[in-house]
């Protein structure tokens, strides 16, 4: 599907990123395996995880190089893209997968916890995509795949920083799709459900929680990789600006915000008339305070 393409996968030292990198290589891509080798909260760093994935790809007969630059800095992110160009002579696709977690209830969240997550997820996706965009424009082709989350699309407890970043990535992706359409550049999002260390902190204190985690563990990162490979391929030439979710063997197309109900008043509105007329008329169409698990309430098979 991606024979001969040069692909950057960020955060590819483990979890979903690792499986995407392996799948890209197995389908013929030359892969930059980017990972700073940090802990889940972003602390520390090691070249080991990226190199291990590169070794796996090479052992299987594929082509790959490691990269340990951070996505959270513009100059560093640009070096990730340049690594592909220097190693393989070009860059054809970017998978923005790198991420960290600093979960905290909003009223307890620190500025540092907010900033760190936004820097890696949202700024990181922008920095890497922006560096690749120059090459994509010049060669009149390119594909970007961004990892979003139903924590942003729907909601979750204790993840205001992560949710804001992930929903921001959706808007970033749509803007890239619009702005770069004339250069044959595509941009799409995947909201993955998969067991990885990114969700390994889910509590397992009760039987119900343990049962939920056992179900999530069945959704392996390898289930997400085929869609990422497809979206990076020429076969996805007509797929642009979309959001998909992957849960085990289930792929869903996710809706995007559109007007649900409109109320018109020829003489205009006052706060009182809004209270008496507009809100009662629209209340039946209000969205409940759902979390991701409330909306995706069925077990994928």
UniProtKB/TrEMBL annotation:
<dbReference type="Pfam" id="PF00106">
    <property type="entry name" value="adh_short"/>
</dbReference>
<dbReference type="InterPro" id="IPR002347">
    <property type="entry name" value="SDR_fam"/>
</dbReference>
<comment type="similarity">
    <text>Belongs to the short-chain dehydrogenases/reductases (SDR) family.</text>
</comment>
<dbReference type="InterPro" id="IPR036291">
    <property type="entry name" value="NAD(P)-bd_dom_sf"/>
</dbReference>
<dbReference type="InterPro" id="IPR020904">
    <property type="entry name" value="Sc_DH/Rdtase_CS"/>
</dbReference>
<protein>
    <submittedName>
        <fullName>Putative short-chain type dehydrogenase/reductase</fullName>
        <ecNumber>1.1.1.-</ecNumber>
    </submittedName>
</protein>
<dbReference type="GO" id="GO:0016491">
    <property type="term" value="F:oxidoreductase activity"/>
</dbReference>
<feature type="domain" description="Ketoreductase">
    <location>
        <begin position="5"/>
        <end position="201"/>
    </location>
</feature>
<keyword id="KW-0560">Oxidoreductase</keyword>
<dbReference type="InterPro" id="IPR057326">
    <property type="entry name" value="KR_dom"/>
</dbReference>
<dbReference type="InterPro" id="IPR051687">
    <property type="entry name" value="Peroxisomal_Beta-Oxidation"/>
</dbReference>
């Amino acid at each position: 599907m991606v024979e001969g393409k040069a692909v950057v996968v960020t955060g590819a030292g483990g979890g979903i990123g690792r499986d995407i990198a392996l799948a890209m290589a197995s389908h013929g891509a030359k892969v930059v395996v980017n990972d700073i080798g940090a802990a889940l909260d972003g602390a520390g760093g090691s070249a080991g995880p990226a190199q291990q994935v590169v070794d796996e790809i090479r052992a299987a007969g594929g082509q790959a190089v490691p990269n340990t630059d951070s996505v959270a800095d513009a100059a560093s992110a640009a070096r990730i893209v340049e690594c592909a160009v220097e190693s393989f002579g070009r860059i054809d696709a970017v998978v923005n997968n790198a991420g960290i977690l600093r979960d905290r209830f909003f009223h307890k969240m620190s500025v540092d916890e907010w900033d760190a997550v936004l820097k890696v997820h949202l700024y990181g996706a922008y920095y890497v995509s922006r560096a690749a965009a120059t090459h994509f424009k010049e060669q009149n082709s390119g594909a970007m795949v961004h990892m979003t989350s139903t924590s942003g699309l729907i909601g979750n407890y204790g993840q205001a920083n992560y949710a804001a970043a992930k929903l921001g990535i959706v808007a970033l992706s749509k803007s890239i799709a619009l702005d770069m359409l004339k250069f044959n550049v595509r941009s799409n999002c995947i909201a993955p459900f998969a067991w990885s260390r990114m969700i390994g902190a889910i509590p397992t204190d009760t039987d119900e929680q343990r049962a939920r985690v056992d179900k999530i563990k069945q959704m392996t990162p390898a289930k997400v990789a085929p869609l990422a490979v497809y979206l990076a391929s020429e076969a996805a030439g007509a797929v642009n600006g979309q959001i998909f979710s992957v849960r085990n063997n289930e792929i869903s197309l996710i809706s995007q915000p559109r007007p649900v109900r409109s109320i018109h008043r020829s003489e205009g509105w006052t706060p009182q008339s809004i209270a008496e007329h507009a809100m009662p008329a629209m209340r039946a169409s209000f969205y409940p305070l759902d979390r991701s698990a409330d909306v995706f309430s069925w077990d994928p098979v």
